[in-house]
Each structure stands twice: as C-alpha cells, then as structure tokens.
Design goal:
Elements: H1 15-29, E1 36-37, H2 49-62, H3 78-89, E2 100-103, H4 106-112, E3 122-127, H5 131-140, E4 143-148, E5 167-171, H6 183-196, E6 199-203, E7 229-234, H7 235-239, E8 247-250, H8 259-271, H9 277-286, H10 289-315, E9 320-322, E10 328-332, H11 339-350, E11 352-353, E12 355-356, E13 367-371, H12 376-389
Parallel strand pairs: 1-11, 3-4, 3-5, 5-6, 6-7
Antiparallel strand pairs: 2-8, 7-8, 9-10, 10-13, 12-13
The protein binds D-malate.
Length: about 400
C-alpha cells in the first residue's frame, strides 16, 4: 500500500496535544507547582440538572424491552432536530427539519464535510485560524490560501475580489480571537460566495456567547446565505458537552438545488451511525426553557471570568480583544515576546497555561489566547498571579 503523503505536510502533532505534552513535562519536573490551565477551550462547569435528568431517564428507557432502541436515524432523531429548528426561529431563521443533521460535534463535521468537495477546490482561511480547517484540508491535499486577520482589520478580514476561492471558512465569534462579524460584514462574505459559486463553511460553535442582539448568531440571518453556506454548531461550549459529544450541521437545500444536502445525507448514512439516543435526549433538554435558563447561568459564569481576565490585562495595559461575545481573550504578548516565549514564561513563572497565538497561524505570532472556561477560583488565582508578576 501507499500512504497518504499529504500527512507529511501537517505538523507532527495537533496544537493542543503539543501543549498538553509540554505541560505534562513541566508538571513531572515540578510536582510541587500548581498549574492553572486556561489553554484549551474545555469547559469546567458540570452539565445542567435538566440535561442530567434527561440522560438518566433515557438510560432507564434503554434498559426496558418496550422502550429500548437500537440503531437510530444517522441524521439524528426528529425530536432533537425539531428542537433545533425551533431554536433557529428565535434568531429569525426558518429551516426545514431535514436540513438539520445531528453530529458528535462541530470538529468532526467540519472535517467530514470535505468528503463532498473535490480536492481541486481552493480553500480560503483567515489567519489566525482554528487549526482543524487547515489540517483537514492539508490531509486531503487541497490548495489553501490565507486571508490576513490582524489588528488593522480588527481580526475580521473581508473578502477581496481579486482572490478566487471555492471553499471559505468563517468562524464567528472567532476562535481564537473572539472577534465577531456584524451583519453587514457577513453580507459581504455571502455576496462574495454567491458571486463566485463558492461555499462558506460557517463555524458558529461560540454563537451562544453573543449578547448584543444586533450581532448575528447564524449566517442564515443574512439574506442569500442559504444558497452558499453550511453551518456547524455544537453543544460543547453552549451546554458543557465537550465530553458528552453532540452538535449539529445545517445543510440548506438551496445549495446546488438540494444536491449538497442529499450528498451529506448519503455520506452520513454510509459512514456514521448517529449520536447515541441517550445523548440526543440530553441534548434535547438543552433546548427546553429550563435548559436554556440553566445553560445561560453557566454562560454568564464564564463571561464573568472573561471580565476578570480582561480587567487584569487592562490594569497592565496589555492590548487584548475578545471575551465579550466569546470565551476567548486574545492578547498581545508583552515586551515583544513571541507566542511560545510568552507560553514558557507564564508556565515557568506563574504556572498559567494559555495557547500560543502562533499555533493558529503566522498572524498569531506575538499573540496569546486565554480562555474563560476555568473555574472562578482558578481564574481569580491566575489573575492574582499575573497581577503580581506583571508589575
Ligand atoms: C479550542 O481550544 O480551540 C477548542 O477547544 C478546540 C475545539 O473546540 O476543538
């Protein structure tokens, strides 16, 4: 056999695995030092009660002959797809149930969707960017071009008519920068995609952090998006499902007269056996009024953490964005340190773990990402350490 040599074009290890390895090594060498992890965007608050109750009763159902279920529909149970359809209505988006596909999370589908597109396509990604978009396309051998996101454009690049691309990635609120596109800016991307017969792969995993009612939660709030965009969302950050695993992907039927929707169904029914029934019942509970209330309390908790981090950075005049409509705070490393220098500096001196901006692309060099997903206690402790150390 011949291996897929495209794998030689990606780095040896995934960004967050590299960080975990470095932190483990430090921890082994310094067992007495308490490390505070504000690196990978993993939640710390437990699942809310209404979700746990739904998971429990679905487990009970699985233990009774009359209510036991085997294989479910690969695209998800209608009870959950309906709830998500109604959730979109709250953002004034009308979808059809069969445009919604349940998945085990946005990361998997963002990679898997590439099965539907020719490897001849040119991919446009902003830099800095969530590494999954780049790595999955590199694995498939697609040509990738970059559009600069930087302080000049407030990390929100807009389309450039001179650039020709077929597949465009947009993540808003953005990972890693926390920047959010407004409707007029997203409209420019939608118009560009429709004009160029391109597809936008829109990652809305952080939409639940948006508090300004004028900012779009979904690309489908933008006129014309249903003929050019596929949207990926997840309950990971919204409802603490990073370990529970459930997400959804919306493939509108207007794209190429329903062809993409049909192909995705075909792909999923062939390569995926669906999310477990029990998990889908837990996910369903997230979209009930009690579920929405409970997850909002958790989101508010993380937002308060972001505020605490932001205030500490302000105090030391460290340039930063994000944190307001996002769990991520994107900051400029002090004293012109590189991203990895600042990573080592924080780990060695104050035992705080963040994510080096350069891990997200060349424009991330000199920047650093902190998350608000830590516990309140750890966030305060980390800020106290920073406050003392940065003096
Ligand atoms: C991150 O830290 O960027 C995220 O946790 C990655 C992810 O959601 O896969």
């Amino acid at each position: 056999m011949n291996i897929n040599t495209n794998y030689q074009n990606i780095s040896d290890s995934y960004l967050f695995s590299t960080i975990a390895k470095k932190v483990n090594e430090f921890s082994k060498a310094n067992p007495d030092k308490e490390i505070i992890k504000l690196g990978i965007g993993d939640v710390t608050l437990p699942l809310c009660k209404v979700v746990v109750n739904a998971l429990k009763s679905a487990s009970e159902e699985m233990g009774v002959k009359e209510t036991f279920r085997g294989y479910g529909p690969e695209q998800g149970y209608d009870f959950l797809r309906e709830k998500i359809r109604t959730y979109y209505n709250t953002h004034n988006v009308e979808l059809e149930t069969d445009e919604i596909f349940i998945s085990d999370g946005a990361k998997s589908d963002l990679g898997n969707i590439l099965d539907l597109f020719s490897t001849d396509n040119t991919v446009l990604v902003p830099d800095p960017v969530y590494p999954v978009y780049v790595d999955t396309n590199t694995m498939a051998g697609r040509k990738i071009i970059y559009i600069d996101a930087n302080a000049q454009n407030e990390f929100l690049p807009l389309p450039d008519e001179s650039i020709k691309a077929d597949i465009i990635y947009i993540c808003s609120p953005n990972n890693p920068t926390g920047a959010v596109y407004n409707k007029a800016q997203l409209k420019q991307w939608v118009d560009y995609a429709n004009k160029n017969n391109a597809v936008i792969l829109f990652d809305s995993a952080y939409e639940c952090f948006i508090t300004d009612e004028n900012l779009p939660h979904s690309i489908f709030e933008i006129e014309g998006a249903k003929s050019c965009a596929v949207e990926f969302c997840s309950l990971s950050k919204m409802a603490g499902f990073t370990g529970t695993r459930c997400g959804y992907t919306v493939v509108p039927k207007q794209i190429q007269n329903g062809l993409l929707n049909k192909m995705w169904l075909r792909r999923q029914t062939t390569k995926f056996n669906g999310v477990p029934y029990i998990i889908q019942r837990g996910a369903e509970a997230v979209f009930t009024p009690e579920g929405q209330k409970e997850i909002q309390e958790n989101l508010n908790y993380y937002k308060e953490n972001a505020k605490i981090i932001s205030q500490t950075l302000d105090k030391h005049n460290i340039w930063h964005i994000g944190g307001k409509h996002s769990p991520y705070i994107w900051l400029k490393c002090p004293d012109n340190m590189t991203s990895w220098e600042f990573f080592d500096y924080l780990l060695e001196n104050v035992q705080i773990v963040g994510t080096p901006g350069s891990g997200f692309g060349k424009n991330g060099e000199g920047y650093f990402r902190l998350t608000s997903f830590g516990s309140r206690e750890n966030t305060i402790k980390a800020c106290e350490r920073l406050d003392k150390f940065l003096k």
